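[recover] target loaded
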C-alpha cells in the first residue's frame, strides 16, 4: 500500500489530482482527522478514525493501492504487510506564510475544521499564528515517529515535477506533473518575502520543521541521484 501524507500547503492538492488520474477508484482520500489540533475532541476523533481503518484493513487492501490525505503517519504504520510512505515537503518559511494566507482566505472552512474556527475567532496576525501552539511544526507533526529516511519517496514543493518523476520511478507509475492547484492567486512573486523578524520567529517556533526540511532535501537528492533524475 502506498501511503501519501498530504502536508498542508506543500502541493498536496495538486498531487491528489494527479493521483486521481493515475489510480482512479484505487485511490482512497482520507481527510477529516483534524490534524494540527490537539484538543481532547481532536485526539478522540483521530483515535476513532484510526481504529475504523484498522477494522477495514482487509477491505482497504482489496480495494485500494494508494491512500492520500491529511493524517498522521502513525495511523497506517504496521497496518499492511507492505507499506511505502510518500510525502512532499516545503521550505518552512514559505509553508508557514502560505498556510496562514490559506486560512485567511477560507473562513468558510471553520464549519468543518475546528482549528480554522479557532484561528478566525482569535483574528490572528501572522506573527501570532507562528507562535500558536496548535500549529507548531506541522510538517514534522504529520510524520509522527516516522523518520524522513524511512520514506520511500520524498518530494520537494520547489521541485515538484522531479518529485513526481521520482514517484513514477519508484512505483512504476505514470503520474503526470502538469497540475498545480490551491495556490495563492493573489501572490505576485514566485515566493513570499520573509522579513528578518519573521524569519527569526519561525526559527524559534518551527525548529522541528526546519530540521525535517533539511533532511528531506538530503533524502530527495539521494533518491533522485539513485534513480537518475
Amino acid at each position: 500500500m502506498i501511503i501519501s501524507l498530504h502536508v498542508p500547503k506543500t502541493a498536496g492538492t495538486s498531487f491528489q489530482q494527479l493521483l486521481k488520474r493515475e489510480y482512479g477508484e484505487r485511490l482512497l482520500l482520507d481527510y477529516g482527522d483534524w490534524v494540527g489540533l490537539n484538543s481532547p475532541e481532536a485526539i478522540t476523533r483521530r483515535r476513532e478514525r484510526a481504529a475504523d481503518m484498522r477494522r477495514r484493513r482487509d477491505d482497504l487492501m482489496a480495494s485500494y493501492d494508494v491512500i492520500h490525505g491529511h493524517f498522521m503517519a502513525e495511523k497506517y504504520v504496521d497496518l499492511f504487510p507492505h507499506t511505502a510512505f510518500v510525502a512532499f515537503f516545503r521550505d518552512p518559511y514559505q509553508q508557514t506564510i502560505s498556510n496562514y494566507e490559506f486560512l485567511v482566505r477560507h473562513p468558510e472552512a471553520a464549519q468543518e475544521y475546528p482549528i480554522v474556527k479557532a484561528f478566525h475567532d482569535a483574528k490572528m496576525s501572522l506573527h501570532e499564528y507562528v507562535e500558536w501552539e496548535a500549529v507548531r511544526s506541522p510538517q514534522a507533526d504529520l510524520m509522527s515517529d516516522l523518520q524522513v529516511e524511512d520514506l520511500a519517496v520524498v518530494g520537494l514543493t520547489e521541485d515538484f515535477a522531479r518529485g513526481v518523476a521520482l514517484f513514477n520511478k519508484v512505483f512504476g507509475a505514470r503520474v503526470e506533473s502538469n497540475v498545480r492547484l490551491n495556490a495563492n492567486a493573489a501572490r505576485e512573486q514566485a515566493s513570499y518575502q520573509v522579513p528578518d523578524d519573521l524569519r527569526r520567529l519561525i526559527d524559534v517556533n518551527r525548529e522541528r520543521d526546519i530540521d525535517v526540511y533539511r533532511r528531506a532535501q538530503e533524502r530527495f537528492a539521494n533518491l533522485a541521484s539513485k534513480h537518475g533524475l
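[recover] notes: The two ends are 24 Å apart (CA to CA).
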